[in-house]
Amino acid sequence: MEAKPSTANLVDKIVVPGDVVLDLSSMTNQTIKLGGGLRQECDSVSVIKAGKLRFSKPNKYWVESSQKRYVPCVEDTVLGIVVDCKADNFFVDIRGPTIAFLPVLAFEGGTRRNIPKFEIGSLLYVRVVKANPGMNPELSCTDASGKAAEFGLLKDGYMFETSTGLSRMLLSSPTCPVLEELGKQLSFEIAVGLNGRVWVNAESPSTVVLVSNAIMNSESLSAVQQKIMVDKLLQRIK
Amino acid sequence: MEVDRADGRNPNQLRPLACSCSILHRAHGSASWSQGDTKVLAAVYGPKAGTKKNENPEKASIEVIWKPRTGQIGKPEKEYEIILKRTLQSICILTINPNTTTSVIIQVVHDDGALLPCAINAACAALVDAGIPMKHLAVAICCCSAESGYCILDPTKLEEQKMKGFAYLVFPNSILSVLPEGSSLVQGEPMEHGIITSVTHGAMSGNLSTLRVSVSHL
Asked: Which of A119, A153, A187 is the last residue of a domain?
């Protein structure tokens, strides 16, 4: 085993918990923003989750990894399932460590008189407003300016769960290859939550099943492989 | 000194390792770890809200369930659960998700010596797969000593039964670091300091120096 150079740069490499990635004593007078997966210990920044270390200018570092469990962050759009209704809040499960609260008034034009009634088990498209460690996250069905903006109840359709990495890939821009290929031939409606839940709706059940299977298969495929996979699936139903 | 091992290994040589992750569909993290013929499957569920009554709600708690290959759960299984729980508590960062429980379930698939170190390695890999925040990884090894004073690493079940005593040792992993003194090199090989857990069985006097030398070659 050789000695590593002291200026080894670990950006875009796979790191495991315990690796030290930044030495802060040599970086004075800079503001560095740390994202998920990194923790500051005195003068160094070390990794707490395994994944690929990413850096975006000017000063953001984070570890990119794909898990089946979601860590709530502010301004994320997620799909939640209502588990209980109380006087002030709906209890919504967003696949994180704790149950999230959705205030009863957090809807466009919401007052005490027109509180929506959600049955237990209904699927909602919501936005995370507060995500402090140790506290239950808070959600909202409006965007930052108070408009409804597609948030709210999702009726019909089919929901399935995937990893957080796949849902980030589906939401990336330019459009993910598998969604682009499916969109050329089929018409369907889709809602992707950053917590790994995907909801698909279409006129016929066979379209829904096809779209769901195509998305679930595309996790570890490259762009070209995704196009080939979608072509094969579509040929089967013709 | 020359040692004859049944499968022709050197005293310091480990059995072939194999590890695969994300093998269970429903578990949030899973790993299968095999050293030679000993194979253990670990599954991690969580973190889930709520802790048990006698756990500290200001920290995350870890619950371990050990399932033997055959037979009912008895005292040895409970002992393994406690050792595994203490080890995992010292490598996970418990202050990040307070008042939650992470369940680790260990299933023994085949036991051919060095079972507990294999289970610790499998549990650590499963926790990494589930994305539970950890300070560093845990590396576990079994070394045992015989009457004539030599010690060997990673024994099979037959070798374990013939030995005078054996010890399971768990270390933090050697890390990549950008600090100049981060990875300390001793005789050209990376060394780590500190032991997380050690379990000893039998009588092992006077062998500690040979034990230290042989373990530093891992």
From this structure: A153
Q: ipTM for the complex? A: 0.84
Which amino acid appears at position B173 of this protein? N
Verify that A184 and A134 share a domain, yes or no. no
Q: How many domains does chain A have?
A: 3
Interface of B with A in 112-151 (CB under 8 A): 128, 130-131, 133-137
- Yes or no: say if A186 and A210 are a contact pair by the CB < 8 Å rule: yes
Same domain, A83 and A37: no
Mark which of A107, A130, A153 sits at the end of a domain. Answer: A153
**Quick one: DSSP state of residue A121?**
T
Chain B nearest CA to A88, separation (Å): 21
- Cβ–Cβ under 8 Å, residues B23 and B32: yes
Whether A162 and A226 share a structural domain: yes
pLDDT digits (tens, 9 = 90+) for A186-209: 899 999 999 999 999 999 998 999
Cα dihedral: A178, A184, A188, A190 (round 10): 40
Residue A72 lies in a domain: no
Q: List beta partners, residue A82.
A: A92
Answer yes or no: do A55 and A94 share one domain: no
Structural domain span for residue A171: 158-236
What CATH code is carried by the domain that includes residue A231? 3.30.1370.10
Residues A146 and A165 in one domain: no
DSSP B177: B
- Which residue from A17, A67, A71 is facing B136, i.e. has the nearest CB? A17
Chain B residue numbers touching A17 (CB-CB < 8 A): 128, 133-137
Main-chain phi, psi angles of A193, to 5 degrees: -100, 145
Nearest chain B CA: its distance from A83 CA (Å): 14
Indicate whether A70 belongs to any domain: no
**A148 in the same domain as A196:** no
CATH of the domain at A130: 2.40.50.140
Predicted confidence (pLDDT) per residue in B158-190, tens digit: 887 877 777 888 888 777 666 655 444 444 455
What does the alpha-carbon distance between residue B54 and residue B135 come to, in Å, rounded to a whole number? 25
- Give per-residue pLDDT as tens, B34-72: 998 899 999 999 888 888 888 888 888 999 999 998 888
Q: What is the 3-state secondary structure (H, E, C) of A69-87?
A: CCCCCCCCEEEEEEEEECC
Q: How many CA atoms lie within 13 A of A72 on its CB side?
A: 30
Distance to chain A for B71, nearest Cα, Å? 32
